[in-house]
Amino acid sequence: AETAAPRRRGLHHRWARVLVACEQAGSIPRPAEVARHLRLAGADREAVPWLSRAAADANDLGALDQAAEYLEEALEIAPERAELWLRLAELEAWRHRGKESEEAFGRAFALLDGGEPLVLARAWLQRARANHGPICVPRVALDSARTALELIDQTRLEASEERTEALATRAWAEAVAGSVEDAERLIDQLSAETPSSSDWRVFDIAHARALTLMRRGRFVESYGPSIAAGAASDRIGRPDLAYSAWINAAGAATAAGQHERALELLDRAMAAVDGRGLKGIEVDVLAAQAFVLRRLGRLDDARRVADAEQAVAELLAQPAVLAKASHDRGLVAVEQGDWELAARLLAASLTDEAPVSRPVTRIALAEALARGGHPEQANAQVRATVLEPVRPSDFPQTLVPRLTRVQGLIARARGEPDEAERRLEESIAGWERLQAADLRADSMAGVLADLGRPVVGLVEPERELARARADLQTIREERGSAVVS
Length: 485
Prior knowledge:
Layout: H1 5-24, H2 31-40, H3 44-60, H4 64-77, H5 82-94, H6 98-112, H7 117-130, H8 138-154, H9 160-177, H10 180-192, H11 199-215, H12 219-236, H13 239-255, H14 259-273, H15 279-295, H16 299-316, H17 319-336, H18 339-349, H19 358-371, H20 375-387, H21 396-413, H22 417-437, H23 440-451, H24 461-484
């Protein structure tokens, strides 16, 4: 500290060279330390590649926040480096920061615009990969894959690997958010090409094939391709892609009613991301586990897992993730009959950012309020439900039987048994019609396309029908007891 500034900068520069020489002689690489000495020496440009290497090391250790800090520091020095913006964009996706990821991709595309089409195509493929791995936004992945294919067509260079990835990504996205027929055609096109043992090729085709089978309602058949995709992504070293394969398989098992199998597959998903710093993905795995445990009636376990989801969400401190965790804990509280807690948590989840079905959440909130002895507040939520915009993942055809069931509960809370019975009978008739229609395949696609949550939010008409029938039976027993008295 007492050394004169010019000499101090010289010493830092010299020490950076010593560390580089040590690495070349076989010592453990210390890129972050090299970068720090270069910056203290005033050699900022020389520090950029070392900051990039430090980010890669931190990423490998699962220290995603530290990796992002290194990349941001490098970009403050060299904002013209498109490859650094692309790495930051992908890293932000791994951190479940969708808005920041899109901003970084935008900076990279602006820098690459007008350059080599294949380089730009590879950048669009990175965006596609980010949106069907660490975060799940199928429509963005589909648009990115289409753009990449258009750019590949503009180049005369060999780009078979890039074309294969773009076609497979497009097939996956079409299976989720587009035309399943187009997805099947694309998979057939890929399968007809020269076979490759590449793990990337195995993952791309198997992942897309699993989704097309799920769209067709062939859930059990989809296990094989999902497991092959998960194993391939493990070998590649991409825990985000492994997660997407395992959780899709868990979604298929849940839709098939094989809940114990779903839990086993979710354990594989958690093992793939454990210790990798992917807290945003851990939240989604815990949410799925809580959902399946509720279906199994293991409510204490579901509450424990939902509480763990909340703890991880608090570490991330992102409003959308916190709202999602509050929603999932609220649904467990409804199942446990903790009406006050359920009402508080579900109300807290109704934020603009939350990736939840707002109409369905309001209906659950209305149920908690009605059962908790607040029929007028419950009725206010029913009115608010009708005013909510409806998306495919809200499953509009299910909203009427959901609403009439809650209206029956409100009538019961008001002491109007005739009205309660009438409403519940309407709900039962609605669910009986929907049970015959078999919504599971469309339910899976809707949840994936809109919410990116392949387990949470699945529609199960049989379960809803059983709940409505149980409510009706309770009311009739109460009326019978009153007559006997």
